Structure formats: structure tokens, C-alpha cells
Amino acid sequence: MTTLRVAMIGYGFMGAAHSQGWRVAPRFFDLPATPEMALLVGRNGGSVASAAAKWGWSETSSDWREVLDRDDIDVVDIVTPGDSHAEIAIAALAAGKHVLCEKPLANTVEEAEAMAAAAAEAAARGVYAMVGFTYRRVPAVALAREIVTSGGIGDIRQVRAEYLQDWLVDEKAPLAWRLQKEHAGSGALGDIGAHAIDLSQFITGQRLVDVAGTIETVVKERPLLESGSGLSGTAGVGVGTVTVDDLALFTGRFDGGALGSYVASRMSTGRKNALRIEVSGSNGAIAFDLEDMNALHVYDGAAPAGRQGFTKILVTEPEHPYVGAWWPAGHMLGYEHGFSHQAKDFVEAIAAGVQPEPSFADGLHVQRVLGAVERSSEERGAWTNVG
Amino acid sequence: MTTLRVAMIGYGFMGAAHSQGWRVAPRFFDLPATPEMALLVGRNGGSVASAAAKWGWSETSSDWREVLDRDDIDVVDIVTPGDSHAEIAIAALAAGKHVLCEKPLANTVEEAEAMAAAAAEAAARGVYAMVGFTYRRVPAVALAREIVTSGGIGDIRQVRAEYLQDWLVDEKAPLAWRLQKEHAGSGALGDIGAHAIDLSQFITGQRLVDVAGTIETVVKERPLLESGSGLSGTAGVGVGTVTVDDLALFTGRFDGGALGSYVASRMSTGRKNALRIEVSGSNGAIAFDLEDMNALHVYDGAAPAGRQGFTKILVTEPEHPYVGAWWPAGHMLGYEHGFSHQAKDFVEAIAAGVQPEPSFADGLHVQRVLGAVERSSEERGAWTNVG
Amino acid sequence: MTTLRVAMIGYGFMGAAHSQGWRVAPRFFDLPATPEMALLVGRNGGSVASAAAKWGWSETSSDWREVLDRDDIDVVDIVTPGDSHAEIAIAALAAGKHVLCEKPLANTVEEAEAMAAAAAEAAARGVYAMVGFTYRRVPAVALAREIVTSGGIGDIRQVRAEYLQDWLVDEKAPLAWRLQKEHAGSGALGDIGAHAIDLSQFITGQRLVDVAGTIETVVKERPLLESGSGLSGTAGVGVGTVTVDDLALFTGRFDGGALGSYVASRMSTGRKNALRIEVSGSNGAIAFDLEDMNALHVYDGAAPAGRQGFTKILVTEPEHPYVGAWWPAGHMLGYEHGFSHQAKDFVEAIAAGVQPEPSFADGLHVQRVLGAVERSSEERGAWTNVG
Amino acid sequence: MTTLRVAMIGYGFMGAAHSQGWRVAPRFFDLPATPEMALLVGRNGGSVASAAAKWGWSETSSDWREVLDRDDIDVVDIVTPGDSHAEIAIAALAAGKHVLCEKPLANTVEEAEAMAAAAAEAAARGVYAMVGFTYRRVPAVALAREIVTSGGIGDIRQVRAEYLQDWLVDEKAPLAWRLQKEHAGSGALGDIGAHAIDLSQFITGQRLVDVAGTIETVVKERPLLESGSGLSGTAGVGVGTVTVDDLALFTGRFDGGALGSYVASRMSTGRKNALRIEVSGSNGAIAFDLEDMNALHVYDGAAPAGRQGFTKILVTEPEHPYVGAWWPAGHMLGYEHGFSHQAKDFVEAIAAGVQPEPSFADGLHVQRVLGAVERSSEERGAWTNVG
Question: With an 8 Å Cβ cutoff, are A27 and C13 in contact?
Fold first, then answer.
């Protein structure tokens, strides 16, 4: 196998990011197979053709089911809104296609369960599924995991994780599909809180078992878009009801015993993309902020008294995860590099015949955490088992 | 009235801070009355004498009740552990002494209620009581309040507040009085969480009405001290049970409607004294960190698109609260300046015959919030009315 | 014209960066012509073939002169060491090829003068040349120029610029070609100091007219490489003399009157790629650091007293230069994006038949500044005219 | 000896700072002798009386010569403008008084030489003189010196030091005494550049032997004050010529061989009090900024590859210089604490009969460096021996 022919379903902002990942990864990493941008699928023929031309996909289709029957497609990459993930992924796996699916895995726990079951069954046949929590592939995050899971900060005592944005602070921001429960499934909780949850579990190597929290829609009505899709549409007439949360506050208990506090907010004025995590251990700590994504702050509790402090490691050295393939030391990577790293890791796992991570089971677990937060919120914020 | 003769009860670390406040305030501020460091009271005669000599108190006593009958004492300043606050404060107020009492106001809501009632009764007689949330008097905090309560960030949408320390990360840190419920009343929640609560209410001008949270003792057993007092005592034989929390996570609802998230932790490895607060509004935000206490970060949502960002204001200009009395622009203030500002504000209110702030009623409200968090924690973290 | 067929001469680290620029630019920007990665040229056939395959160049050649006669090559992109820039660029321009040449323009002022003359002559024929100071295309830098040249900080009073690295701190770092005067022409001064000079002139819109400075080789002997090329070669036997500087300190006078101070160092332990510039004006200031390249700090002297401070603008909004083509607000760009921006700007200028910037004349001016610093250093650091 | 009776000559802003030092030091440090604020001297009787009352000096005088004959004065503390330092200090030392003199030591090298000679002669009699470079006593600076002079960063390779302020950016800032050469001797160079020089020598343990630089008066005319003294006077009629520099850029060579670059500016818009120093060594680095004065950034070149970075040490732990006497870990110190530390160090040296540091000889050396920078500036910026 020297080529992996990819069909991508969907072509929003995530489609651009995934395209860049497939395009660039083989130019910097020595991959066991070369991804080929074979087919781009979307309902609106004209838009798809234009996206395919711009991003470099060889062919287009307006029906995702077409990929199921095509022997020349090896991988289905799903970047549609969450409500279609389950149907597409399950069918693709059944058709023997490897699947990369954007997060969150699905809009409901039930869908996610069906997807994880399908993925487990497919894996037994050597067909693999992965969910796209790309922030795991930021070098500073991968380094944080290396340090924490190898015992570098001792026993985990406390986690603080938050994902802060502000694009809904403006009351005139329109009622886009991401603000409608039937399309997006969830709001700040599912879209960005999911990243905070995944990162906290990835870095600690532990899972959340119980949660307690509150979700809220701070701005409850917003102007309607003329067309139903897209964040950038022209504002239409009248207002509609926002049916997803824009602020989620919750606490979680890890299976190792530690407590974590979480904030997912689109009401954090001035914070553009602040996915932050700090893990405090019995002998050290790590801290990360996506708005300063090339740095990891590490506190070494074993340093001599009077010399302790957070060390700001610029994670741009050849020794660091993923970094050696790119530029000389000290040169910054950006947002999209995670998608190249994701493509690389996915291709390597497929080529090696091993399960890529995070698996659909991992994605399902995040979905269960999200569901438990929602149930807790409905039950006056009381502690709720993730299940 | 040109002199206010002060008796201070207690002489721990807080005694040093209050002494510095009384000593220094009149050297920089033009006060309507000069505080006189008249009497230092503590049970251990030798230690008190030594503290009085070092800090500059004229006289000492081993019995706080002595102050009640002395006409030459105008102010009673209480810096003892919380379990004695109520008794001393109520008696002093009854005896016609103005009272400054360290926070938290008391160890229980009941005590705090009695104190607030006594203060209200005394105020009617022109005798005033104040509780010592000195961080209100950090210039950057006072500036934050000015900006927020004057509408500078619009409607308040979200609050994040945390007080992070790490001095209990070490499992060998001994079982000092602050870790014993009978003396300290509460742990991280009451000692440092109280500051986060007060600051969030002070800056927003709003009060918490409901809370939901969890408190926890991460390290449950610690070495016994040979003597029962002081954090720095020699570790003794055996271990004892820690009876207060060292980690508290909670959520609150303000009377204006906004949600706030709170962390109070002594398990935040590497964080020494990180009292942080961020208030997000419909048109801006402010952010503060006590570890960088001379700075306030302000986000102006009305700035032109493309020019927005957090402005780091060095709060060391003559225009800033309290600052003009000190040094030229750009010269840093430190922790203890809050105690001079507290002394100044207290003396000015007493001289003017007006209620100094924060009042015992304010302190009682914080106590009620603390109590509600504890009740919520006992009730699976569910939302609980502050009462 | 819908395609611009590019031949790139050279294939070191800069070759990877330029390749990424040509590859990615048309995927995100709507270009008037599409660059085609037609031909990669390098002396070592095997290495070139391997680089071409990895980076996606269609053909290879071992002789750069081949491009001169090929009608199917529109652009010559020069990424070789500085000693070959003049010969290749002049020949390519004479052959009617547009030229993009890496900085510094040449190893000597004489060569640079010849190149600038050739470029001026070619421009009259509609054939254009540009020199690759890509840091101009970091969005935060481009925003800084917008602000400063539009009067946003008033009259320019003072400039501080420094480019700090540390890869020569280690005395065992080998004697690579960049440390040999015959190949590299200059050391820290010419390689990274040139960037600081260009950025200071670009942002201020002014030119340096006099300089005074000192260049130094702190570590004077280094281990020989077995092979003469490349930074990453195996250390050979014996040591050789470093013939270029590793530390340059100089002062410059701008034509507008302001003074600037410059540091270019490969001895700044712990600084990996810290290209920093601060421009102080009569009514504001801007500050930038390449190690935090998505941020620009702007001080607005017209803000009300007590509200002034440096505003940290995250230059990741659609309003910012270049940014709208990439990701949603708040998503970070990295080092290599500058090369896409360079490709875009170059293609647009060529398509429009206008001179792309920075021109060879700009590159020559930087070269003259570098030469004047060297002369000053030889004359006891005295002020020297740039000429 | 249990008391040191101090007479302070002068009562401007520095007088307030010194007063605070004398007042507070004995309250926190166990001193071998207690400083007594005995006599405040100033020409304007009313102002002196008012300052003495506010700051707590027992007596006042309008003639500094009075102190020479008074047996009850042990220490003369000089905080007048630089043009009177020599006369007072030399007379006081001759009269057997220990002397603490504000920096810069004098307005000319000649005066400073006479003072150093007088101090050397007095020291032989057990009478000591010290110059007030208080920033040496910022704990983070003292820690930096400990680390650097004990070899913690290896051989010193490069120094960058700058002192940036902006209070002269405003062209309407009046022509105060600090801007008149006959009173102030020097401008940014002598007033704040002197601090940068002293700090760089203190931290490295080395001395500057050659310098090359340029000094400049950016704003050459300013409004006249009605009265000639003080920065805060009412602006008068007309303008006058600024006779001192407001911007100084220079380079220095240390006796250990390393180069240092220096900036002293009052034109650095937005920088309020940014005294910054970074020392780069063969095996590490330290960095400090007075605007974040409780932190020291340390880079440990011996840390494992991939784990290196600048560690931000909060210099607020009991292990750190001076800190243990103040507050619990994590509590910030401010500007004025340096004056308490200075008082402590001075009193301890006097009590022990040893030379306090920095000596007048140290102050003279700084003066010689300043003089050499001025000579270099007059000689086209060429390298000039400090002498």
C-alpha cells in the first residue's frame, strides 16, 4: 500500500483544515503511505466544485453514499455537522473504509454508542476509525502528556481546564447552525468543552467518572440568518431562539481520584481561542494555553528550594513531539499543523494495522461526559455518573 | 479628635501586617486622625512583649478583656484565629470601641450573624465595625471596581475567580491550626476562597445568591506539630487528621444574573498566591492576578475592530486609587500597602462618622456564601440558596 | 497568464520554506496566477531528486543555468547561500525571468549594487525582482507598519530592535558554512541583524543613514565538519577558525532623525528566535516579538490618563493583514505562513506588472547598512555613513 | 552601640523613600543597632518642618553644616541633587559621620574622585561611606547576583541592560531641575543609565573597562517652570533649553571580556520604570525587569534537552535574599523595600565595622563610565577607555 485515497464529506472551515493536513503532511513527514485527496463530497454542487478546486481535491460528488461503493476510496474523512456523523461513519465502516470523524463524535450518546460499536466491529476486520481531537497533536500538548503520564509531576491532585472564546458576546451575532440544537447538538459545552475534556483526559491518562455542572444560554435570542447555514451569512429579519448553551461550568472526578474544574464559554470577552489546561501534581505541574500554543509551562517540584518556578519551554526543538519534521529550533507552528500531525498519525496507524487514537470509544466517552453534564445541569447541578 | 488609639488583639503574621498599616499610613496619607499603636494583646506574655517591641506597640497585655474598660483605647483590631472573633468583636463594640476584624468574619454563620447584629446596633451609636478584606485596597482591584461598576464593560456576563496556592502540596506540611476545623473553621474555602468571593462581589457590585460546589481534603493526614500553633512548628510524632478542606470548587449565581466559577486551592503546585479574577461583560472585560498585583488588564469592547485586546495598565500612576500618595509613576507597591490603605480608609470613615466598608454585614454575606458552599457539597453539589 | 512556472535554485531549509509557500498560497488566497512548482535545481543529483519528490517539484536539474534557456520557466527563486545570489539573479533577470532572492541580497555591497542595477534595468522591461525579507509578512508586523506609517504613534522618537538566538552558545556547535565568511559573507550581523534592520525600516517607513557599531566573534574556534556544508553534519577532526561574527551591537540614525539601537546575537542563551522590535513615538508605541508572533503590543498615548497601557492585540482577526484568508478569529499562524504571504504578494505584483516589495534596491540598502556597521566596527565603533 | 542617629539632608521624593527605609527596617529585621530619625535638613524651613512631621524626623535644621558639630549625629544621609553631594559628603566624613549618599555619586568625575578619596581616608578611621544604588537590594537582583557570580550560568558572554521610562515623551513636560545640567549633571544617562551600569556590574561581578556610545536630547526645548525646582511645579511663561540628554545608547566591554549593550531612555513611550537586564552565559542566563520586580527568569543550560526554558522564579520565598524577614511565601514586595534593605545592610556594616557596599569607589567607577560615555559621544561614538 503506497497510497491512501481519501474522500472528504463536508467542506466548511474544518474541510479547509483537513485538506491542509492531507496536503502538507507528506511533504514534511516520511509516511508509510501517501494520502491522496481523491474526492470531495457536499450537497451543493457549485460550492463543492469551487472548494475542490481551491483545496486540490481531484473529484467531487453531491452524494456521500457514492463513496460506499467505490473501491478506489480507502478513507472517509467526515467534517459535516454532528447530526450526520453517525450515519456516514457507520455506513463507511461497514463498507470497509477507514474513517476519520471530526469531533464531537455525535450529537447524542446513543449515536456515539452505535458509532463506537461499529468501530469496534470494523477494527476486528482491520478497518479503523478515529475521532479528530486535533489539539492532542499540538506539540506542547503532546509534550505535556509525555511529562505527566511518565510521572513527571507525581500524583495528579487537581486539574483546571477552560476553553474561552468571545464570538457570542455580541448580541447581534446571528443564529447560525452552531447555535441550533438540532444541528449542533450542543453549544459551548459540546463544541469547545469537548476539547477541554479530551485534553484533560489525554494529558493525565485518566478518565472522568462523575461530573457536576451547569449549562446556560446567556444570550437567548439572536437575529435570524437569511439562509440557515454558516456563521457568516447576512443577518435576516426577526430573531430566533438560541437552543444551545453558550456557557458551561462543571466539575469532574477522574478515575485516579483528582478533581477537575471546567469552563467552556463563548462569553469570555477578549478571549479568542483560549483553551487552557493546568494539571497540578504532588511533585510538579504543567500549564498550557492555546493562545500561546508553542509554549509549555512546567513546574518541577524537585528543583532546589529557591530555584523553583514555572519553566516556559518553547516547544520548538527537534527533541519535541512532531517538531523535528518542520523548521529549525525556535520557529513557531500554528493552528493547522495539528491537522498535518493528525493525518500523519492516522496514516501511520492504518499502514501499521493498529488502532489510531483517539478511537471512537474515546470519542464516545467524551460524549458520555457531555451527556452527564447536561443531566447534572437539569438536576440542579448535582454530581452525576458518567456511565 | 486627632488621635485614634488602637489595641490589637493577636500577633501572628496578620499582626505584623496590621502593625505596618497603622505605622505607615499616616506617613503617606493626610489622615483626619493619627492612629496610635497603643496596646498589643496576646496570651503569651513573653512573645507579646517581644512582638510589641519589634512592631512598636507602646504597651502589652495578656488579657483582651482589659481593653473593654480602658477609656484610652478607641479601636480594637482583631487578628486572632476565627474562633475568637465573635466574642471579642461583640464585647468591644458593646464597650464603644470601633472594631477592625480580620477575615473571615467568623467560623460559623451563627457567629457572623451575631457580629453583624452587634455592629448594626453599634453603628446606630456611632461606633463602627469593619472586616479586613484588604485585597479590595490593592490599587488595581480598586480600579477594576471603578471600571466595572461605572459600566465600563457593559452588562456582566461571566465571572471567573480563583485563589491558588501550593503550600499544602507537600504531604509533610504539618497539621497546623489552619488545618483544624475547631480553630480555623474552614480551610482553603474559608481562608482564601473568601477573598475570591469578596473580590468578585466588590468588583461587580453584585452579590451571590445561589451556589453549587464541592469541597475536598486532598491530603487527609498530616504530621502532628509538637505544639499546636503556627505553621512553622517542628513536626512532632505521628499523624493527625486534617479536618478542613484544601480544595474547593464552586459555581455561583449573582443577583444580576451572571454565573461565576470559583476555585480555591492549596494544591495548585507552583502557584504561590494567585488570587485571580476575570469579569466578562457585554462590552469589555477586566482581569487581575495578585501575583502581578500592580497590573490590571482591561479589554475595551468599544475599541475599533482589529485594535482590540487586553490593555495591561500598570496601576502605578497618580490618577489611580491610593497611588498618588506613594511614589512617582511606575514604582511598584507590594502586599503590605493594602494594610496602609485599609488603615487610611478605616480612619477616614471613623473620623467622618460614616460606616467603613466592608461592613460586618458584608462579612456576614461572605460567610453565608461559604456556608452555602459547604451545604451544597454535602448535598451532592446541588445548587443551594445563600439565604 | 494563469500560471507562473517557478524554478527554485537551492534546497536547504529555506527551500522547504519556499516550497511550502508556493504550494499553500494558492489554496488560501485567490491569486491572479497560479504558481507551479516546475523545477528544482541543485548540484547533488540524488539529494535534489529526493527533495523534489518530498516537496512536490515536477522536475530537477543539477545546473541552474539550464533555467536561463527554458521558456517554460517564468520565475527563478534563489535559496542558495549568499555568495551565489548575484550571479544567478543577474543572469535570470537578463534571461527575462522574474526573480525572488533570499536575503541577505548578497555577500558584499558590490554584488548587491550589481543586482540592484540589473533589477532596475529588468523592471523597465517588465521583469521584476524581489528580496525575501519574509518577516514583513507576519500579520502582526504588517499591522505594526500600518499603525506606525499612518501616524498612529506620532513622530518616531526611538527604535529598539534585536534578533536573539542561542544556537552558537554551545562551543561544540560545528564550523558550518554559515560560520565561514567566504560562504556566508557575514554572521549574526548579516543573517539575522539584516532582518532587524529591514523590519525597523519597514515598520517606520524610514531608512538608516548612519550607523555606529561593533561586531565580534565570541567563540573563535569550532570543531570542523567532515563535510563543509550544512549545519547538521557530523563533527570532524580538529578545529577551525570562525570567520564571521556571532554578536553585533550597533546604533543607527534614521533619516527622520530618530535613533535606533540594534542587537544581533547568537550568544543570547535561552533565546531561540527572538526577533523583537519596539518603536516609540511621540504619541504611542508598538512592540513585537517573533517568539510570540501572533501578538502585537500597541500603546496608545491618546488613551485617557489612568487607562493607558500596552494593548496585546491577537493579530488573528479577519480585519488584520493576510489573516482573513486563513482560519476563524483566534487561530494562530506560524513561521511558514510568511512564505505563503510572500508568494501571494509576489504573484500579485507580477500579475499586475508592478514592482514587488522589498525590491533589490531595498535589499541593497540593507546591505549598505551591514557594510557600514562592519566599517564602523573596524574604525573603533565610530559613526559611519551608510552611503 | 545600640542606636544610630541619622541626619538626612534633603527632602524630595528620595527623602520619603529613605525615611521609609529607616523607619521600617528595624521593624522587620533584627538589627545590631537601631537607626533613629534624628534630624531633617533643608533650606526652606516651613517645608522641612512639614516633611519632618509627616515622615517622623525628630528635629529640623536649615543648615546642613550644623550636623558637622553635633556629637549626637552618627550618620549623614544625603538625598540632595547631585551638585551638592561632594561638599556635604566630604565634610561629613571629615567630621566623623558615616555617610549614605544617593546616586549618582556626583555630577562630575572630579567630584566623585574627591569623594572616593575622602571615603578611603575615613574608612581607615572606621568611618564609612556608601552610595545608594538600592536596586541591588531588590531580592530578585540579589538572587541574580548569587546565581551569576557563583558560576550558575557559566562564563558571561553577553549583557543587555536598559532602563526605559517615558515621562519626557510629552513635549509639555516642564524644564525641571533634573533637565538642567548645572543641577542634575546628566540626564537619562546619569540618572537611570547609572542604575543599569551598576546593576550589570553588580550581577556579573565584573567592571566595564571601555565604552562607546551616543547621548542625545530628543526634545530640545521645554516650558519653563515658574520656580526652578521640582518636577511638579506650575509651568511658567516661555521655553528653555534642555541641557541634559533624554536618550543614551552605549556599548561596554567588561573586564572579563564580554560585551554589553545599554539603553537609557526617557523617550520609551509606555515604559514606566523598565529597568531590565539579561546576562547570557555559556551555560545559562538570567533576566530581570523592574516592572515585574518580584520575578527572576533563569535559564539553566544544564537542563535536559527538550526541557530547557526560562524558569520564572517568584522571588518571594524564605530562601531568597531579604525575603524571610517579610511575609509568607508568595507575597509581593514593592519599590520601597529596597530602602529598608539598604538601611539594614548599612547598619549591619557600620555595626560590624566593615565597608558597606556599594562603596564610594564603586560609585566613582560608575561615574567614570558615565564620563567615558559622554566623551565617546563627543568623539563620534568611538570606543573610549573608562580610565
Answer: no
CATH for B37: 3.40.50.720
**What is the domain count for chain B?**
2
Contact criterion met (CB below 8 Å) for C212 and D212? yes
Same domain, residue pair A153 and A290: yes
- Please identify, among C72, C101, C132, the residue that sits at the C-terminal boundary of a domain: C132
Q: Do C309 and B319 touch (CB under 8 A)?
A: no
Shortest CA distance from A329: residue in chain D: D306
A293: DSSP letter: T
Given B55, B293, B331, which is nearest D332 (Cβ)?
B293
Pairwise CA distance, residues D162 & D273, whole Å: 10
Q: How many CB pairs under 8 A join A and C?
A: 95
Cα dihedral value C26, C30, C33, C38, nearest 10: 0
DSSP conformational letter for C83: G
Question: What's the helix, strand, coil split of chain A in %, to 5?
Answer: 35, 25, 35
Give yes or no: residues A300 and A180 share one domain. yes
- A120 with A173, same domain: the answer is no
Residues B162 and B300 reside in one and the same domain: yes
Inter-chain residue contact B269 with A301, CB threshold 8 Å:
yes
Identify the chains in contact with B, defined as 3+ C-beta pairs within 8 A. Answer: A, C, D
Query: Chain-wide mean pLDDT for chain D?
Result: 95
In a domain, B313, yes or no: yes
- Residue A109 and residue A75 share a domain: yes
| Chains in contact with D via at least 3 Cβ–Cβ pairs below 8 Å | A, B, C
Return the residue of B nearest to A168 by Cα: B282
Both C248 and C294 in a single domain? yes
Contacts of C283 in chain D (CB under 8 A): 269
**Together in a domain, B173 and B97:** no
Using CA atoms, how far residue C147 sits from B48, C297, D193, in Å, is: 62, 11, 30
Tell me what the pLDDT averaged over chain C comes to: 95
The chain B residues in contact with chain A (CB within 8 A) are 153, 157-158, 160, 162, 166, 169, 171, 212-214, 216, 218, 247, 249, 251, 258-259, 261, 263, 265, 267-270, 278, 280-285, 299, 301, 308-310, 379-383
**D205 lies in some domain:** yes
Chain B with chain D: Cβ pairs closer than 8 A: 91
Instruction: For residue A373, tell me if it sits in a domain.
Output: no
pLDDT for the residue numbered B300: 97
**Which range marks the domain in which residue C297 is found?**
138-330
Closest-CA distance of chain B to residue D144, Å: 19
User: Do A91 and A228 share a domain, yes or no?
Assistant: no
pTM of the predicted model, to two decimals? 0.96
- Band the pLDDT of B113: cuts 50, 70, 90: very high
For residue B354, tell me if it sits in a domain: no
Which is it for strands D75-78 and D98-102: parallel, antiparallel or unpaired?
parallel
Q: Which of D179, D173, D167, D174 is nearest to D224 (CA)?
A: D174
User: In this predicted structure, what is the pLDDT of residue B1?
Assistant: 53
CATH code for position C252: 3.30.360.10
> Which residues make beta-bridge pairs with D253?
D210, D259
